[in-house]
Amino acid sequence: MRASLSPSLRSFALAFSLLLLLLTITYSTAYAQGEGPSPYREFPVIGSRVAVWIAAQVHLMFAAFMLGVPMFALVVEFVGYRTGQKRYDELAREFTKLVLVAASITAAFGALLTFLLFTLYPAYMAVLTGVFQPTFAIYPLFILFEVSLLYLYWYTWDRLDTAKGKRWHLLIGLALNITGTLMMFIANAWLTFSITPESGGEALFDAAGSYTGTIWQAMNNATWWPINIHRVIANVAFGGAIVGLYAAIRFLNASSEEERAHYDWMGYVGSFIAVIGLIPLPFAGYWLGREIYGFSQQMGVTMMGGFLSWLWILQAMLIAVLFLSINYYLWIGMGRIEGGERYSRHIKWLLLVLTLGVLVWATPHNPVVTAEEQTRIGGAFHPLLGVLGVMSAKNTAVNLMILTTFLSFLFYRRAGKGNPVQFREHGNSAVAVLVIVLIISIVLALSPASYILRRDGSNLLPAVIQMLHVLALIGGVGLTLADRGKAGQWIILGAAASLVIFFGIYGYFVEATVRIGFSVYQVLAVLTALIMSTTIDVYLFQGAPNIGTIKWGSMPARAQYVLILLAVTFTWLMGLMGYARNAIRQHWHIYEVLQDMSVDAFSPTLGFAARVISVCVLVFLGLIGFIFWLGHLGEKKPVASAAPLTPRTLPASD
Amino acid sequence: MTNSLKVAGFIVLTVILFAGFASFIPQLESPAPEALEITGELAGGELAAVGEQVFNSAGAGCLACHGLGKVGLRAPDLAGIGGAAGERVAGSSAEEYLRESLVDPCAFVLSGYDCIMPQTLEQTLGIAKITALIAFLQSQGGEITVTLSAEVLEAGEAEARAGIAGTTPDDIFANAGCVACHTLSAVGATGQVGPDLNAVGGRLSADEIRQSILQPDEVLAENCPTGPCLPGLMPKVFGDQLSAAQLELLVAFLSSQVAP
Fold it and tell me: What is the pTM of this model?
């Protein structure tokens, strides 16, 4: 496999170096020239904005691939190392190979973006390079370092394939991921500075428009960390979704049962990682939204209630597709596990909750109306549906959808299992782990309660609810220790759902400044429920008898199309969020500092944005298809022999 | 190969569906504000052209009520106002009348209309845009007499950028121009355009008050002096002009107005 790819890798390395050189020359030239005679230049036919938009978006998609897939590879390699199952190692290796090819395309689009920005928007880039000058010099070095680590990670795979060497190899993988993430943080600083050019509430420009802050203040601006965290999590999910896409395509084109079994399993692993990443994403989004409101009420209003308000309806539709796809995939997946039919009767209820959640999330807060219509209905809100359009309802809906998806996952896990093992059979170490998890969960659950009491000691109701939640957690653990773990799990999950619903309703009766904190309580309740239920579940079914086998490779073709839909939706959603992130700046290059005076100063409609996003998605997926094809060309032997531990049927414990 | 084509078709179809849905829902564009590029002295038709941009801008909001060559939704048709302005009030020139109508619109109200015009234009637009507006209105059947220098424009823009001054609720309320439209005994305001704010804290939550300031058209008040309040009446500029601290101070102050 390696031997056949090496020459092409060398040529990619050469191309990559040339691109880096181009990037450096472009930067140096533009920076030396300063603002130049004109703040704008025009790109032919499609215009400067669309040219930069496409280059940036496709680059970002590849960058997410470059960051997300190595995260996936490292985790999977680590699982293989810990479990001793060679197929995990092979899976990690298979995807690292694809990352190698993607590296040069990512660099190509990065160089193109840089070239376009410096050429078409010299005045904006002069300000940006003036503020961030040292980072623009360091960034190419990071690229070189990351690529070096990537090559090292790939080429030492066989050499370090020993018990001791594997640790070193994992260390290289970790260094690769850390380097990539740090690179992303630097690029995020450039982006977020343009959105929120203030740090710690301090403005960074004086009245004359001169920069007065330090470079650290510029980096550590109001939205830097929220975007950093949001993107790290999103990259994990994206990496999983792309793995699922690859697995689905290979499954559909597989020529043997063994191949189908291998790619069925790969699709499951990819979708599992995507779900892990997807679940905390809304929480990171709330944090980002809160920081935007904190920076500028007007920007927050523009984002949620202004011309972008319908964007969130579209986002809700896409999230709905993601949630429904994942759940549907898990429900179909239960069909390949003997014993899974025991849980199929619950599916209709799960579907009902998901559908209601989607409907609430997709309800617009204030539909677009004319002045006359507005006068007739007495405002911009629909008298009935407007109630469902507010954040209290939406937060409640999404948290319940997350809990529902988790239930689907629990049912999937248990599908091939018989009665659970009594918890005490796992000994004192299991009890210790459970108690530690409980303590962490209590701390998480109590922190909002103490905050509530400090903030407003006169209103004890929210704090009492939090305390009841803590009691439920303790009760759940108590039942688990009394060998009634399933009941314990239901109490924990039920308590979380109750708390989510309570604060969802109570949110209508308090101020926005109080209500915004409720989303944190809801999130913490769901997170603690997820952590505790998973911990209990792992022990309950570790060593539990199998009542059937997993028939890998027996998934129907429609399940593969669900995985493809997942990847396409995720990629499209990334594009949409990119538009939202930039559109909230409206007619500013740097918000309220450097005004956009170009012909593209207006923010385009959602329909126009959707067409540009669609082009980006198709370009990206087309190139990804090309990368998959290249990876396939490099294979010398069938997958079956590369993954000898992939029989068609495996015990349900696998 | 067939499967690969099916997958490609499925992907393209999915993308088209997403783009189609996005094109189907209401389309809104966020226009850039009109740039007033002035170098040196501006007068006559050039200044009127700038004024026309201001007149048509969402920031000024003139067309929310007035018509130009047709009856406005709730305010007079401004066609020919340049010629009529000098004859409306005895002793006032056309320029003086128009300036007063923009800065202090309730000083003279045309018969058959109520004074519902916001009295905050001087604060929200600045003196330069007001001058340009006067030139545009004078150009509607009259002679353009006003001029605008780049220095005045720059001073006006700088004033607009500086936002609203004030660190106490009273000052913010006054400097933001709230007094011009609202009645509030605590600060001696007697405006008769917007809702009476005495006891506003008793009927609206702080959240609702905040929304009324930032997004005044989201929920229309029922109790304007001339009947239910109309959309577009209150300027939507306070999110830009008030700092977050000033906004919260104002919200807290209004929330405390509970006594009738």
Answer: 0.76
